[in-house]
Amino acid sequence: MLAELVQAVRAWADGAGGLGVLVVAVLDSSVLALPNATDGLIMYLTLQHPGWWWYYALMGMLGVVLGSWPLYVVARRGGEAFLGRRLSGPRASSALAFYRRSAFLAIAVPAFTPPPMPLKIFVLLAGATAYAPWRVVSALAVGRGGRHALEAGLTAAYRDEALAAFERHGAALAVAVVVAILAASVGVYAWHRRRTGA
Q: Structure pTM?
Protein backbone atom coordinates (compact mmCIF):
# COMPACT_ATOMS: atom_id res chain seq x y z
CA MET A 1 0.00 0.00 0.00
CA LEU A 2 2.72 2.47 1.00
CA ALA A 3 4.80 1.56 -2.03
CA GLU A 4 1.82 2.28 -4.29
CA LEU A 5 1.28 5.62 -2.55
CA VAL A 6 4.91 6.58 -3.08
CA GLN A 7 4.67 5.67 -6.75
CA ALA A 8 1.45 7.68 -7.14
CA VAL A 9 3.01 10.75 -5.52
CA ARG A 10 6.08 10.41 -7.70
CA ALA A 11 3.89 10.29 -10.77
CA TRP A 12 2.00 13.39 -9.57
CA ALA A 13 5.24 15.25 -8.79
CA ASP A 14 6.69 14.40 -12.21
CA GLY A 15 3.57 15.76 -13.89
CA ALA A 16 3.08 18.82 -11.68
CA GLY A 17 6.70 19.95 -11.71
CA GLY A 18 7.33 23.51 -10.64
CA LEU A 19 3.62 24.30 -10.38
CA GLY A 20 3.30 21.46 -7.87
CA VAL A 21 6.07 23.05 -5.81
CA LEU A 22 4.19 26.35 -5.93
CA VAL A 23 0.90 24.78 -4.76
CA VAL A 24 2.48 22.84 -1.88
CA ALA A 25 4.46 25.91 -0.76
CA VAL A 26 1.34 28.10 -0.78
CA LEU A 27 -0.59 25.54 1.29
CA ASP A 28 2.28 25.04 3.74
CA SER A 29 2.70 28.75 4.39
CA SER A 30 -1.01 29.57 4.67
CA VAL A 31 -3.74 27.12 5.73
CA LEU A 32 -1.73 23.99 6.50
CA ALA A 33 1.47 22.88 8.17
CA LEU A 34 3.32 20.47 5.90
CA PRO A 35 6.80 20.29 7.42
CA ASN A 36 9.50 19.67 4.80
CA ALA A 37 6.97 18.82 2.05
CA THR A 38 8.08 21.70 -0.18
CA ASP A 39 11.74 20.99 0.53
CA GLY A 40 11.34 17.31 -0.25
CA LEU A 41 9.44 18.01 -3.46
CA ILE A 42 12.09 20.48 -4.62
CA MET A 43 14.84 17.94 -3.95
CA TYR A 44 12.93 15.14 -5.66
CA LEU A 45 12.33 17.20 -8.80
CA THR A 46 15.93 18.41 -8.79
CA LEU A 47 17.06 14.78 -8.74
CA GLN A 48 15.01 14.18 -11.89
CA HIS A 49 16.07 17.40 -13.64
CA PRO A 50 19.26 18.78 -12.03
CA GLY A 51 19.55 21.63 -14.52
CA TRP A 52 16.23 23.07 -13.34
CA TRP A 53 17.20 23.33 -9.67
CA TRP A 54 16.96 27.15 -9.75
CA TYR A 55 13.42 27.01 -11.18
CA TYR A 56 12.15 24.70 -8.42
CA ALA A 57 13.80 26.91 -5.78
CA LEU A 58 12.18 29.98 -7.32
CA MET A 59 8.73 28.37 -7.33
CA GLY A 60 9.11 27.40 -3.66
CA MET A 61 10.05 30.98 -2.81
CA LEU A 62 7.09 32.40 -4.77
CA GLY A 63 4.81 29.92 -3.00
CA VAL A 64 5.78 31.09 0.48
CA VAL A 65 5.30 34.73 -0.51
CA LEU A 66 1.85 34.06 -1.99
CA GLY A 67 0.79 31.80 0.89
CA SER A 68 1.94 34.25 3.57
CA TRP A 69 0.25 37.26 2.00
CA PRO A 70 -3.30 36.54 3.29
CA LEU A 71 -1.94 36.12 6.84
CA TYR A 72 -0.18 39.47 6.58
CA VAL A 73 -3.29 41.21 5.22
CA VAL A 74 -5.61 39.78 7.90
CA ALA A 75 -3.25 40.79 10.71
CA ARG A 76 -2.70 44.23 9.21
CA ARG A 77 -6.44 44.89 9.07
CA GLY A 78 -6.75 43.84 12.71
CA GLY A 79 -3.74 45.97 13.70
CA GLU A 80 -3.49 46.86 17.36
CA ALA A 81 -6.72 44.98 18.16
CA PHE A 82 -5.08 41.78 16.86
CA LEU A 83 -2.08 42.38 19.13
CA GLY A 84 -4.19 43.39 22.12
CA ARG A 85 -6.09 40.08 22.07
CA ARG A 86 -2.91 38.06 22.04
CA LEU A 87 -0.25 40.11 23.77
CA SER A 88 -0.40 42.26 26.88
CA GLY A 89 1.80 43.47 29.70
CA PRO A 90 5.24 45.11 29.85
CA ARG A 91 7.10 42.09 28.52
CA ALA A 92 4.87 42.01 25.48
CA SER A 93 5.54 45.72 24.88
CA SER A 94 9.29 45.14 25.09
CA ALA A 95 9.05 42.16 22.74
CA LEU A 96 7.05 44.21 20.21
CA ALA A 97 9.53 47.08 20.40
CA PHE A 98 12.36 44.63 19.72
CA TYR A 99 10.38 43.08 16.86
CA ARG A 100 9.80 46.47 15.22
CA ARG A 101 13.55 47.17 15.32
CA SER A 102 14.55 43.83 13.79
CA ALA A 103 11.48 42.72 11.83
CA PHE A 104 13.38 41.95 8.63
CA LEU A 105 15.61 39.40 10.36
CA ALA A 106 12.69 38.16 12.47
CA ILE A 107 11.01 37.10 9.20
CA ALA A 108 14.04 36.14 7.10
CA VAL A 109 15.67 33.86 9.70
CA PRO A 110 12.57 31.69 10.38
CA ALA A 111 11.92 31.59 6.62
CA PHE A 112 15.41 30.18 6.11
CA THR A 113 15.37 27.82 9.10
CA PRO A 114 13.72 24.41 8.61
CA PRO A 115 10.88 23.16 10.87
CA PRO A 116 10.05 23.26 13.73
CA MET A 117 10.96 26.98 13.54
CA PRO A 118 7.60 28.76 13.05
CA LEU A 119 7.15 31.39 10.33
CA LYS A 120 3.43 32.25 10.37
CA ILE A 121 3.56 34.05 13.74
CA PHE A 122 6.26 36.42 12.46
CA VAL A 123 4.25 37.17 9.32
CA LEU A 124 1.20 37.88 11.51
CA LEU A 125 3.28 40.19 13.70
CA ALA A 126 4.53 42.00 10.60
CA GLY A 127 0.95 42.69 9.56
CA ALA A 128 -0.21 43.70 13.02
CA THR A 129 2.68 46.15 13.42
CA ALA A 130 2.11 47.53 9.89
CA TYR A 131 5.58 46.52 8.72
CA ALA A 132 5.99 47.65 5.11
CA PRO A 133 4.64 45.07 2.63
CA TRP A 134 7.67 45.25 0.34
CA ARG A 135 9.95 44.58 3.30
CA VAL A 136 7.89 41.52 4.27
CA VAL A 137 8.08 40.21 0.70
CA SER A 138 11.84 40.92 0.59
CA ALA A 139 12.47 39.14 3.89
CA LEU A 140 10.46 36.09 2.81
CA ALA A 141 12.23 36.03 -0.56
CA VAL A 142 15.69 36.29 1.00
CA GLY A 143 15.02 33.71 3.72
CA ARG A 144 13.02 31.06 1.89
CA GLY A 145 14.68 31.73 -1.48
CA GLY A 146 18.07 31.22 0.14
CA ARG A 147 16.98 28.00 1.81
CA HIS A 148 15.47 26.49 -1.32
CA ALA A 149 18.37 27.60 -3.52
CA LEU A 150 20.83 26.01 -1.08
CA GLU A 151 19.00 22.70 -0.82
CA ALA A 152 18.28 22.49 -4.55
CA GLY A 153 21.85 23.48 -5.47
CA LEU A 154 23.34 20.89 -3.10
CA THR A 155 20.92 18.25 -4.39
CA ALA A 156 22.02 18.95 -7.96
CA ALA A 157 25.68 18.93 -6.96
CA TYR A 158 25.50 15.75 -4.85
CA ARG A 159 22.86 13.91 -6.83
CA ASP A 160 23.81 10.31 -5.97
CA GLU A 161 23.94 10.92 -2.21
CA ALA A 162 20.67 12.86 -2.34
CA LEU A 163 19.01 10.06 -4.30
CA ALA A 164 19.93 7.57 -1.57
CA ALA A 165 18.48 9.89 1.10
CA PHE A 166 15.25 10.30 -0.85
CA GLU A 167 14.86 6.52 -1.11
CA ARG A 168 15.05 6.32 2.69
CA HIS A 169 12.51 9.08 3.38
CA GLY A 170 10.30 9.02 0.29
CA ALA A 171 7.28 7.56 2.11
CA ALA A 172 7.00 10.49 4.53
CA LEU A 173 7.19 12.95 1.65
CA ALA A 174 4.51 11.01 -0.25
CA VAL A 175 2.09 11.22 2.68
CA ALA A 176 2.69 14.97 3.09
CA VAL A 177 2.06 15.65 -0.60
CA VAL A 178 -1.14 13.57 -0.59
CA VAL A 179 -2.41 15.59 2.39
CA ALA A 180 -1.59 18.81 0.53
CA ILE A 181 -3.48 17.70 -2.57
CA LEU A 182 -6.53 16.65 -0.55
CA ALA A 183 -6.51 19.91 1.40
CA ALA A 184 -6.27 21.92 -1.82
CA SER A 185 -9.20 20.01 -3.30
CA VAL A 186 -11.37 20.59 -0.21
CA GLY A 187 -10.39 24.27 -0.13
CA VAL A 188 -11.24 24.84 -3.79
CA TYR A 189 -14.56 23.02 -3.37
CA ALA A 190 -15.49 25.07 -0.29
CA TRP A 191 -14.50 28.32 -2.02
CA HIS A 192 -16.57 27.41 -5.08
CA ARG A 193 -19.64 26.62 -2.94
CA ARG A 194 -19.30 29.92 -1.10
CA ARG A 195 -18.99 31.84 -4.36
CA THR A 196 -21.99 30.18 -5.97
CA GLY A 197 -24.06 30.37 -2.77
CA ALA A 198 -24.87 26.66 -2.92
A: 0.74
